[in-house]
Amino acid sequence: MIRFAGFAAAALLLATTAFAQQADQPVLKGKAAFGGWKADRPGVRRLITPDDLQAPDVSQSSSNSASPVERATSAGPQLPPGFSAEMIVSGIDNPRVVRVAPNGDLFVADSEADQIRVYRLAEGSAKPAEKAIFARNLTQPYGIAFYPLGDKPQWVYVANSDSIVRFPYHDGDLKASGGPETIVDNIPSTHHWTRDIAFSPDGKTLFLSVGSGSNVAEDIGAEPEGGFDAWTKSKPLGAAWGSEDGRADVLAYDPDGNNGRTVATGLRNCSGMTVQPATGALWCVVNERDELGDNVPFEYATTVKDGAFYGWPWYYIGDNEDPRHQGERPDLAGKVTLPDVLMQAHSAPLNIAFYDGKNFPADYQGDAFVALHGSWNRDVRTGYKVVRLKFRDGKPTGEYEDFMTGFVISNDEVWGRPVGVAVARDGALIVSEDGNGSIWRVTYDDGRS
Description:
The protein is mostly beta strands.
């Protein structure tokens, strides 16, 4: 017993010392924050600001797509001291968004297989006690939400690439008891197809993100049908037209799909949304445009402000004009909303979850985790990790920290591409990746147990 107590105390001391060393590391800023995958490791912190933007260069565009390979038994996630990761399952076709039902079940969008999977874990374990296919024959499902909010939802909402449907649900259902009811249809589905959904804290509003149909509206044309003046007077600030009409937006509906409206525009691909528990604010993570250089423009996470315009396709990160649309929208200069947290260009953030569990150390409370799927339009690979956005009193500090790395094997190969993040009922962090089709459970042990 004395030996165990001494070992536990030593382990706690080591973990505490390691955390202190992490906290003492200098925050990487400016060009120092633009490194590649070899510099990534848990605890590395970055702070990127709008002043760090480099000049765009349309002639400097890399194509460096990752080649996913089978994960070797020696390869696995790297985490801060005290944290460990256990694999729940692997070999899923295309695990994307993960959402936790009130009873603790994990609902997983297996997007390319057109189905929703469910995993019920054994208590305190990564081992599935039960698993099932909740719904089949969907169309690239991605976002998942439970409604009404609370302990006893009656519906599971699923965002397909072209619609929102809902299934009847009772606590503990592993398979839908009825067919899908279409709530919203005719969503444009080409190119960026990931549609996320979230409910407002009062349950009265269903939010939907719809990404753009192109990189930077190359075929949008000089002005909309009917004239530019008429369009701008009848549409939200920064709304695009033609093939991009209703795209690069966050939309809102009543829970029954009626009374659709535009919340915000100019969000090129808001591929992940969540509501911040501390404030009730809607947040999204955005994949910005490509082919302006290795470090231009920055990706970002941001609150979604009602009526705001975030720049796409004419501007980015404030009043920085895209050279491919130079001089086209001078009326929008000075009207672009700056995002809250900037991240390395081409990192491809796909999902966000705020930590409100009880398993992690107290300083993680209120912070957010973001899954970075990884770059293709960058000479030196970046992303391919889960990062932690730092918050203080409910407000972002702008800093973010590497949390879960180790997915990249070499300059040419990766075994994992993080997609989904969710906080389990027991406080564990659930992470999905679609390189090897695996789902992981991350927990913390301070050595005292």
